[in-house]
Amino acid sequence: MRTVAVVGGGAIGMAVAWRAAEAGRRVTLFDPATGSGASWVAGGMLAPLSEGWPGEDRVLAFGAASLARWPGFAARLAEVTGLEVVVADETLTVALDGADAADLRTVAEWVGERGHDMRLLDRAGVRALEPALARTVRAGLLAPAEPAVDNRRLLEALKAACAAAGVEIRAERVTALADLPHDRVVLAAGAASARLWPDLPVRPVKGEILRLRHRPGAAPAPRRVIRARVHGRPVYLVPRGDGIVVGATQYEAGFDTAVTVAGVRDLIADAEAVLPGIGEYELAEAAAGSRPGSPDNLPLIGPLSERVIAATGHGRNGMLTTPLTADAVLALLDGETLPEARDALPQRLSATPAASSPSIAGGVR
């Protein structure tokens, strides 16, 4: 039985470990705090279509391919663990002014031409779906195929699935990939991946989110994911069983994960512009994490050497791209490349060598 080490215990790392163990490999997952990091601080949106924009064909295709895998992935998780992770079935993007309404038409046309169901709504159509939204909403774009998941329930389910499949989870920090004795190594350490493989073009992108808890008498949470742009800033509201997750700021701030007053202020103000009744909710949590960004908004999934495989750089779409990443890594472990994941091969970026010696990662913390 071939052995596999997975370095990184977020959603990506645990999904890879689970699927590899189910496929018959002996898997060890290394992470000092499994289920933390960017995966813990996430909204859980699965929205590649709503985020589509002309010219970003590869990003759309990759995201849509992973979205198509989510129903089977979620069903298998539920079968193994008894945990349902989906919390919303649709995504509604709303416009508060004419310019944003024009952008919605652009997205609807471009994404629709590529075979995806996108429905433009007028003011009345938006209010019919989500009557609690602000009366200033002018138009909407409904993506019926874009659900959302509870990221923390997903992490709980993946950890349980790993245990059921026999994955050994070790609460240890890996400082040198070359020290691991396993036949293959999967580098899924998120924003910290470049610390273990120098020159890997993955960087931390700070994001802040709020978790709001519903209080008696407050307006009900939306049934769908609500996305908007307020004063040029993107904002989203994702329903949870006890309230709403509001996100997310985006800063180039290194590994700084302090929550700022300005970030909280902007998120609350922007969310209230979309859902006025949100002011009656309880501010239950403010948190920040470091998303693993890449230069072209596509992850890096592919061989770094004969032994090491990258599965990192997923940016703000880690939850969305978890199923496709797991399938792609399993294919790579079998010596194959999944066609839908070819655009994510690390070698597309000139700074990433086609086959470097794993020893170059030695000693990096």
From TrEMBL:
Listed GO CC annotations: cytoplasm
Catalytic activity from the UniProt record: glycine + O2 + H2O = glyoxylate + H2O2 + NH4(+)
Enzyme Commission code: 1.4.3.19
SUPFAM superfamilies: FAD-linked reductases, C-terminal domain, FAD/NAD(P)-binding domain
This protein's record includes keyword Methyltransferase: no
Gene3D superfamilies recorded: D-Amino Acid Oxidase, subunit A, domain 2 (3.30.9.10), FAD/NAD(P)-binding domain (3.50.50.60)
Protein name: glycine oxidase
Gene Ontology molecular function terms on file: flavin adenine dinucleotide binding; glycine oxidase activity
Occurrences of domain FAD dependent oxidoreductase (ranges): 4-329
Pfam family membership, one: DAO
Pathway linked to the protein: Cofactor biosynthesis; thiamine diphosphate biosynthesis
GO annotation terms (biological process): thiamine biosynthetic process; thiamine diphosphate biosynthetic process
Keywords: Oxidoreductase, Thiamine biosynthesis
Matches recorded under InterPro entries: D-isomer_DH_CS1 (IPR029752), FAD-dep_OxRdtase (IPR006076), FAD/NAD-bd_sf (IPR036188), Gly_oxidase_ThiO (IPR012727)
Keyword Oxidoreductase: yes
